[in-house]
Design brief:
It is a single chain. This protein has about 150 residues and is an alpha+beta fold. The chain is globular. The chain has a 7-stranded antiparallel beta sheet with strand order 1-2-3-4-5-6-7, covered by helices on one side. The longest helix has 27 residues, at about 10-35. Helices cover about 25% and strands about 30% of the residues.
């Protein structure tokens, strides 16, 4: 199998930044839909935040976009999903997840130009990973331990 060398230029960076925003929007839409089945009284709020100005964006003079963050809350729990960055070594983007009791890292381990492969990582034991799905989200919303 031949490795393809990617030309990194301004157009490529703009394409990647736009794709990152679309993947986040799709992820947060899925999370919103799934969470409605976990708790009826859950409140779902999206907040606009400025995208971090990452190194390649600065190098090619690409302005950061406004991206969404997501907060799920009710009287007992709160879960925040905050995008940290697109260019993270070994992944295709990172979202930090915080609850009252736990912290998690959500990486897209999919390759460029493929469907996202959202994977939860234990921040204290980075080799512990599980797929991000409805079951994992349910544990996050209920503030239960994902990695035992």
């Amino acid at each position: 199998m031949k490795n393809e060398i990617k030309k990194i230029d301004r157009d490529y960076v703009v394409l990647r930044v736009t794709d990152w925003k679309q993947r986040l929007d799709h992820l947060f839409s899925d999370i919103s839909d799934w969470s409605k089945n976990v708790k009826e009284d859950i409140e779902i709020k999206q907040y606009d935040i400025p995208q971090a100005r990452e190194e390649l964006m600065s190098k090619f003079d690409v302005e950061p976009m406004t991206i969404n963050s997501l907060v799920l809350s009710d009287t007992d729990s709160r879960a925040s999903f905050i995008p940290l960055g697109l260019w993270v070594i070994g992944s295709n983007g990172r979202v930090n997840i915080s609850t009252k009791k736990h912290q998690y890292i959500l990486f897209d381990l999919g390759d460029d130009n493929t469907s996202p492969l959202w994977t939860l990582v234990n921040p204290t034991h980075r080799k512990e990973r599980i797929s991000f799905n409805k079951e994992a989200l349910t544990k996050i919303i209920k503030d239960e331990e994902l990695f035992e």
